[in-house]
Amino acid sequence: MDIRLLRLRSLGTASAVLFTTGAVLYAGMFLLPLYYQQLRGGTVLYAGLLLIPQGVGSLVSRFAVGALVSRAGARAVTIASFLVTAIATIPFAFAGAHSSPWWLGAALLVRGFGLGAVLIPPMSVAYQDVSPAGIPHATMTTRISQQVGASFGTAIVAVALQSLLAHGAASAFQGGFWWTIGISVAALIPALALPAARAPRRE
């Protein structure tokens, strides 16, 4: 893998955003099933069914985000998507064992939309400064960035959850979700460096 390509603005900033995207995505994927199973006493099937709204929201976003990126640019859409994801996670930071599943399901639908939308803008600009010969290396770079970010985000919320268990399970999960929100907000920093709009790719 040619890491020198990260000096290119489009690939470097997109890789940083994909790192934080992986952290946000997998932090939630780690916490949400555990919340439904451990705190609410549900089965694996129960937890999976209650996570369906997040998948639906992610699917719906794929039909709209392409047009949004074309109109508003990758930077604006990425920032908005991270903000939507953070705001939609807030209900879980206050949720307990008996919180309304309908309210949480609605939050998951919105959260899924934000997560689905945030993946597309950085990928739409990642390769615009990369020569055709560098595309294979650049593709590997973006993929690895997302996977490393996923491990990073999961580790943070796992440690936070474990350290807060002494205060009770409900408090531990609430703290874990606050950490997830914090990661989503921190993700705005690399998102600000994304190109504002698409530019013709360099030959």
Structural notes for this entry:
The protein is mainly alpha-helical and 203 residues long. The chain has 8 helices and no strands. It starts with 8 loop residues before the first helix and ends in a 12-residue tail after the last helix.
Shape: globular
For the secondary structure, the number of strands is: 0
β-sheet strand percentage: under 5%
Distance between the termini: 20 Å
Order of helices and strands: HHHHHHHH
Low-confidence stretches: 199-203
Structural class: mainly alpha
Radius of gyration: 18 Å
Average pLDDT metric: 87
- Describe the biggest sheet? none
Specify the number of helices: 8
Summarize the structure.
By secondary structure, the protein is mainly α. It has helices spanning 9-39, 44-50, 52-72, 74-93, 101-125, 135-164, 169-186, 188-191.
SSE map:
Elements (H helix, E strand, L loop, with lengths): L8 H31 L4 H7 L1 H21 L1 H20 L7 H25 L9 H30 L4 H18 L1 H4 L12
Protein traits:
mainly alpha; 8 helices; disordered C terminus
